[in-house]
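ok new one. same drill as before - structure tokens go in, u give me an amino acid for every spot. 171 of them this time. try not to just spam alanines like last time pls lmao
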């Protein structure tokens, strides 16, 4: 059974098939509820990441600066999903986190107007209420580009093509 070392030096044992969230729940159920990610041996991971060997664990919570950045990033993706539902054929460019929130560049059939914002927000709330499963996949560059093009997301295909990375994570 793997052993997880906490920042205070305490070690806890986890099951051989444990995920990060399982280890956090062993520490404290409340901590598991406020966790948004973790660092395992210094590497940023999501809560579903496996713990398959001894590791150092640092929990990132929603009330930390890093946690807020992760939540903003996730919220940008939820907004993109909402815009995609409300504006079929929407093309997505970038949606980075910024100092006081996030933004997303869209190519839409028409310009957004102020009246669209409550509709987008309502659709975002609906998506959150759907409690959709979230899973991570990793794709090599050529597969990621091909998938973006297959989904008619030319901007994303170009962003991936221009990136120096060889692999890309998708949720």
């Amino acid at each position: 059974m793997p052993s997880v070392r906490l920042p205070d030096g305490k070690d806890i044992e986890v099951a051989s098939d444990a995920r990060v969230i399982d280890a956090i729940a062993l520490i404290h159920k409340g901590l598991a509820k406020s966790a948004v990610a973790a660092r395992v041996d210094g590497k940023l991971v999501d809560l579903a990441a496996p713990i398959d060997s001894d590791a150092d664990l640092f929990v990132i919570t929603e009330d930390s600066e890093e946690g807020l950045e992760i939540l903003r990033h996730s919220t940008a993706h939820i907004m993109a999903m909402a815009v995609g539902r409300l504006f079929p054929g929407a093309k997505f460019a970038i949606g980075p986190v910024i100092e006081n929130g996030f933004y997303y560049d869209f190519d839409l059939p028409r310009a957004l107007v102020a009246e669209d914002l409550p509709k987008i927000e309502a659709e975002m709330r609906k998506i959150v209420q759907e409690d959709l499963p979230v899973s991570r996949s990793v794709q090599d560059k050529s597969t990621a580009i091909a998938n973006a093009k297959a989904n008619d997301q030319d901007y994303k295909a170009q962003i991936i093509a221009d990136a120096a990375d060889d692999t890309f994570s998708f949720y």
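The two ends are 28 Å apart (CA to CA). and btw The first helix runs from residue 20 to 27.
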